[in-house]
Amino acid sequence: MRPIPRFTPDLHPASLVATLALGTVGGFVAKALHLPLPMLVGSLLAVGTAALAGLKPLGRAVQFPAKLRLFFIPVIGVAIGASFTPEILRGAVAWLPSLAALCLFIPLAHYLSFRALRATGTLDPITAFFGAAPGGLIETVQMGEEMGGDARMLTMLQFLRLITTLIAVPLFFTALSGHAVGSAGGASMSRTQPGAIDLLWLLGAGVTGGLIGWRLKIPGGMVTGPILISALVHLSGLAQGAPPGWLVALTQLIIGTSLGVRFAGMELRRFWLALRLAGLSTSISIGLAAIFAFALARWVDEPISAVFLAFAPGGLVEMSLVALSLQLSAVFVTAHHALRIVLAVAAARALAPRLAK
């Protein structure tokens, strides 16, 4: 079992405050522009740009202790676990064909993207493998770093996968429907507001799930552990609702900032390389998602657009917001993306030892 990490950052407090302030400003700017996941995307862009440009607020480079984010990551897991309701279980029977197909789609998309990235001759096997994963930005970067991959390149590949998916999905629906559609960046998902008892259960799910995931080395344990415990709590009816919006936003800020500082010292030519590689990998996953959508639409009681959203390699929240804006089944999309995250992380963890050999 791995020991629980201790929070002992070796950094300058003023630099930490300046970095968080920069990330916060970036988050609110992204929110004003109605971007999806504004606190995550905005803080990552702001801090990442400062890191790439070599800016030094208060005379020091942007800094953030990586271990600090471990205290916030379980919030994401609890929020995802809150999506598992009895309604999803009842609907899952009709969704079995697409849920089963997702088990094929994830390793196939991962393998094809991995081979394409390796064929370019620009990435080592570890970085190419985890950079090609069609889901789990935080988890795959962490696993890849643990195995010796290029953490900064992994961060760019996974982040740019999210961004290119957010751009490509509206284009897909424009081609499908014949008219432009929005990205639903300003939409919001209605959720039951948790009471005091609910919050205690959610807190317990996050702490317990995080500890279990970390100790037992569950794939992406700090996220998947809380997902599983939160799902059990919600399915059993012990709690309702999800973590408060302000806590989720703070978590996005922490994660975005922690990822942004990883761009420090990276050459611009490496960034443009990552952009090209991410475009290559994402185009493969999106193309494969479209093929699966057309093939599965007749087998599930959902339109092609909903099935495509369920397989698109974007984030759970982003794709659910797009589903809401198009008046599609957000429950269907959420169920598939929750499974996609678990499958993507589990597949990466399972196949990594063979890659190491």
From TrEMBL:
<dbReference type="Pfam" id="PF05145">
    <property type="entry name" value="AbrB"/>
</dbReference>
<feature type="transmembrane region" description="Helical">
    <location>
        <begin position="37"/>
        <end position="55"/>
    </location>
</feature>
<dbReference type="GO" id="GO:0010468">
    <property type="term" value="P:regulation of gene expression"/>
</dbReference>
<feature type="transmembrane region" description="Helical">
    <location>
        <begin position="159"/>
        <end position="176"/>
    </location>
</feature>
<feature type="transmembrane region" description="Helical">
    <location>
        <begin position="92"/>
        <end position="112"/>
    </location>
</feature>
<feature type="transmembrane region" description="Helical">
    <location>
        <begin position="221"/>
        <end position="239"/>
    </location>
</feature>
<feature type="transmembrane region" description="Helical">
    <location>
        <begin position="277"/>
        <end position="300"/>
    </location>
</feature>
<feature type="transmembrane region" description="Helical">
    <location>
        <begin position="245"/>
        <end position="265"/>
    </location>
</feature>
<keyword id="KW-0472">Membrane</keyword>
<feature type="transmembrane region" description="Helical">
    <location>
        <begin position="67"/>
        <end position="86"/>
    </location>
</feature>
<dbReference type="GO" id="GO:0016020">
    <property type="term" value="C:membrane"/>
</dbReference>
<feature type="transmembrane region" description="Helical">
    <location>
        <begin position="306"/>
        <end position="326"/>
    </location>
</feature>
<protein>
    <recommendedName>
        <fullName>Aminopeptidase</fullName>
    </recommendedName>
</protein>
<keyword id="KW-0812">Transmembrane</keyword>
<dbReference type="InterPro" id="IPR007820">
    <property type="entry name" value="AbrB_fam"/>
</dbReference>
<dbReference type="InterPro" id="IPR017516">
    <property type="entry name" value="AbrB_dup"/>
</dbReference>
<feature type="transmembrane region" description="Helical">
    <location>
        <begin position="196"/>
        <end position="214"/>
    </location>
</feature>
<keyword id="KW-1133">Transmembrane helix</keyword>
